[in-house]
From TrEMBL:
A single GO cellular-component term on record: cytosol
EC main group: transferase
Name of the molecule in the record: 2-amino-3-ketobutyrate coenzyme A ligase
Native source organism of the sequence: Bowdeniella nasicola
Matches recorded under CDD domains: KBL_like
Gene responsible for this protein: kbl
């Protein structure tokens, strides 16, 4: 039994380092107000940016779909797993983010896992931001392309890496970045990235999971916010965050790119089609997102209020305007303080999460707060009050 004792030793190491993740169990639907096994809480750590996770008409659409379309597909898309509504959802996503077409995956993790190997081989180069999401890193690893990295949002380093790729004679060069960096709430400088891409003849590939549905005037994403709707080549994203938060991911881009993915992307070819009720609910979520100007305005107000009240109260928050707000606890004992404060806040009925090394750099522990359109002004004020009381 040396295998099991090795595994137990590894678990003990994780525990000893204070890195064990314990999953809190909800006893309610996902929402701004939740019930958990340790009591009711105001939820400030979901990716439920538009508050759609338990929205009535989405739930109704998913229920109706169970009747009309059944429970499961029991097939990959190309065998017999494509209903008309799967295509409808793909077209609807493409229309929303402003590309010619889109293709669904079981998750954005799978979308990113399948994308790169289809387009990048040993004669190509991929230049990626050092803070990119794990799924981008894994997807890029699956290629035989030359891999180059630049420090987070550092445009002079990006330029140097692009030059390196060009000097190495790369056939294709892809620049890969998150639209929003999830630990900081910072936007990638997509306008500058597109300028460099033009200069070096590179493709721009953006994972906009923390933006689709609510960032930009019409919620189309970071490319809308930064005025580069027509200059980003490929967008990946998730249905598991703002757009109802169930599951599913996509790649959106030019029609031939989507068509080749249908022929070659392994997680698409060899994994089950997205469940009918999730497709129907997501279609409804997109419809709502299109008309969600009020929710986006509420989200913006909540974010501004939270950021300004926290600053007034003397907390250090990373600058910006995204609903992800990092409340910093720097220095030696920052990790411990962040954890203690998050625990004390939960006792006061406010659920937030502390992050420390290795998820964020050493000495930069933080509590990440995520605002939602589902929060009221009173909810936001209650969250700030809990921070103040927990700080002691
Ligand atoms: C959440 C997230 C993903 C994963 O999305 P899933 O659909 O849950 O697999 C991928 N990339 C980024 C940037 C994310 O934030």
């Amino acid at each position: 039994m040396t295998f099991l004792s090795d595994v137990e030793a590894e678990l003990a190491e994780i525990e000893a380092a204070g890195l064990t993740k314990r999953e809190r169990q909800l006893t309610s639907a996902q929402s701004a107000h939740i019930a958990t096994t340790s009591g009711d809480a105001l939820n400030f750590c979901a990716n439920n940016y538009l508050g759609l996770a338990d929205e009535e008409s989405i739930v109704a659409a998913a229920k109706d779909a169970l009747e009309q379309w059944g429970f499961g597909m029991a097939s990959v898309r190309f065998i017999c797993g494509t209903q008309t509504q799967h295509r409808e959802l793909e077209e609807s996503i493409a229309e929303f983010v402003g590309t010619e077409d889109a293709i669904l995956f079981s998750s954005c993790f799978d979308a990113n896992g399948g994308l790169f190997e289809v387009f990048f081989g040993p004669e190509d180069a991929i230049v990626s931001d050092a803070l990119n999401h794990a799924s981008l890193i894994d997807g890029i690893r699956l290629t035989k392309a030359k891999r180059l990295r630049y420090a987070n949002a550092d445009m002079s380093e990006l330029r140097a890496r692009l030059q390196e790729a060009k000097d190495a004679g790369a056939r294709r060069i892809g620049i890969v970045t998150d639209g929003v960096f999830s630990m900081d709430g910072y936007y990638a400088p997509l306008d500058e990235i597109c300028d460099l891409a033009d200069e070096f003849g590179a493709l721009v590939i953006v994972d906009d999971s923390h933006a689709t549905g609510f960032v930009g005037e019409h919620g189309r994403g970071t490319h809308e916010l930064l005025g580069v709707m027509d200059r980003v080549d490929i967008i990946t994203g998730t249905l598991g965050k703002a757009l109802g938060g169930a599951s599913g991911g996509f790649v959106a881009g030019p029609r031939p790119v989507v068509e080749l993915l249908r022929q070659r992307a392994r997680p698409y070819l060899f994994s089950n089609a997205v469940a009918p009720s999730v497709v129907a609910g997501s279609l409804r979520a997109l419809q709502l997102a299109r008309a969600a100007d009020d929710a986006r305005a509420q989200l913006e107000r909540n974010t501004e209020l939270f950021r300004s009240l926290m600053t007034e109260a003397g907390f250090e928050i990373l600058p910006g305007s995204h609903p992800i707000t990092a409340v910093m606890f720097s220095g030696e004992d920052g990790a411990r303080r962040a954890t203690e404060i998050a625990d004390a806040m939960l006792e006061r009925g406010v659920y937030v999460i502390a992050f420390s090394f290795p998820v964020v750099p050493r000495g930069q522990a933080r509590i990440r707060v995520q605002l939602s359109a589902g929060h009221s002004e009173a909810d936001v004020r209650a969250c700030v009050q809990a921070f103040i009381e927990a700080r002691g």
